[in-house]
Amino acid sequence: MRITDTSDLWWKTAVVYCLDVQTFMDWDDDGMGDFTGLAQRMDYLHDLGITCLWLMPFYPTGDRDDGYDITDFFGVDPRLGTHGDLVEVIRTANDRGIRVIADLVVNHTSIQHPWFRSARRSKDAPFHDFYVWRSDEPPDTSDQVVFPDAENSIWEFNEPTGEWYLHHFYKEQPDLDVTNPKVRDEVAKVMGFWLQMGLSGFRMDAVPFFLDTVGGDQKDFPDPHEFMRALRAFLGRRVHGGVILGEVNLPHAQQAVFFGGPEGDELTMQFDFLAMQALYLSMARADAGPLAKALLDRPEVSPDNQWATFVRNHDELTLDKLSDEERAEVFAAFGPDPSMQVYGRGLRRRLPPMLDGDPRRLRMVYSLLFSLPGTPVLFYGEEIGMGENPELEGRMAVRTPMQWTDGPNGGFSQAPPRKLRRPLTTGGYGPEFVNVADQRRDPESLLSFMKLLIRRYRECPELGWGGFEVLDQPHASVLAHLCRWEDGAMVAVHNLGPEPQTVPLTLEGCDSSHRLEDLLQERSTPLDEKGRAELALEGYGYRWLRVVAEGSRRLL
Ligand code: NOJ
């Protein structure tokens, strides 16, 4: 492997930024964000340093699940613009070295999709077999629904045919039947279409549900993973360096299967939901143990694959993989009021309010995010420390418009406030206090800090490519880890607790000809003849240290 390989497997050192066009920037002042507004903000994203934009669904929608219920897989929601406007966005991004991927939501359609409208009319209607049906009364499946506040079964009765159709999500999102070869062909065609428009890949929604063959005809389709491999191969044929970033919230061992095992020929990347949940438990306990364990438990993956790390996304902060007691600890620390919780498993808050706005703690968490092995994914607004609007329903609380200025509508739109797609965040995290314009001018702002982290992350290929070790040291609240790749190595040390700590470290294979160069501040720490050093950390302190040998040509 050479440093130039980082351009071939670009996703291993990418910085991904997720946004929803409808809430990012409104350029025609109708209250709804649009592609033109996004294109206008491309230089902001470039300046931030991101290298991959993930667009949440921008397709025509039944509007039941904020765009995740699609009525036309080949269309663009006219409220956001046209196909032409999207192409302009992609070209503007590409010109600035930013690739664009988009949500691919093919586990289900909207109930209003023409396929389902046809399918539900009669058993021999065209497209009937695109969906999953049963004609006998379904058993109790209330424990399998994803949205327990709205649904109590994954089967919904359809009057005209006297059958029930499958829907893992809302009843307005009927599941497609991937055992049907015609459905599989359509999925590939959808991918091919958007790749031709210039996308570099997809964030694939709900992958385990998508590949699930419940109720389908399994005799002609024994192995769903063969289908996943076929889609990955198809993507590779259509687009050089195309990626699929899969949403698979399952234990690590099962995620390994979705990567395609040692071959690595299924999903390119997967979110590490386990490490994310462990991070919150670690923060709640001021004990780095759970996070360290989750990271060490990651299965070995092929060099072509990658873990995507994140702190927050557009959904609830799910804590479903923690035990009941662990989840209760995280709830108590970061969202004790039942109104902050959702579905009994997650929190509908953004990070800064969860940390009571403590800037030290907030910076420590993002320093940790960018120093963990993997590809970091940001959710828009995290870079400025946006909060949520608790008045909004369920998960929508964290999907408020981007805050550009302290002016009307936070600079998101010049429409009258009542016409905005969604109300803004209010209170101490609203645009008056948290906005891009103020933070751009302030070298001490969170935004400036995030830019520094992104720059350093991009300069440290060890983080995206390297092997990972947890270093021994005596403090439970501290995570000290080392990433090593080729002749480069870097150590990151994070204190998850409020007390200052002095951290003794021993770096194997190092001696007094090595030193540690601080990458976030101007400081250098010598190592002794046994490769030992003591590092001072403030409460919630963090340090990134490059291991430098005498005569090294590394740029610091
Ligand atoms: C996962 C998405 O992240 C979520 O927002 C959506 O509601 C479901 N999949 C259904 O598409």
From TrEMBL:
Cross-referenced Pfam families: Alpha-amylase, SupH-like_C
Protein name, per record: Trehalose synthase
Classification via InterPro entries: GH (IPR017853), GH13_cat_dom (IPR006047), Glyco_hydro_b (IPR013780), O16G_dom_2 (IPR045857), SupH-like_C (IPR054049)
Spans annotated as Disordered: 402-421
Source organism of the structure: Petropleomorpha daqingensis
Domain Glycosyl hydrolase family 13 catalytic positions: 18-421
Source species, domain of life: Bacteria
SUPFAM superfamilies: (Trans)glycosidases, Glycosyl hydrolase domain
GO biological process: carbohydrate metabolic process
Record CDD domains: AmyAc_TreS
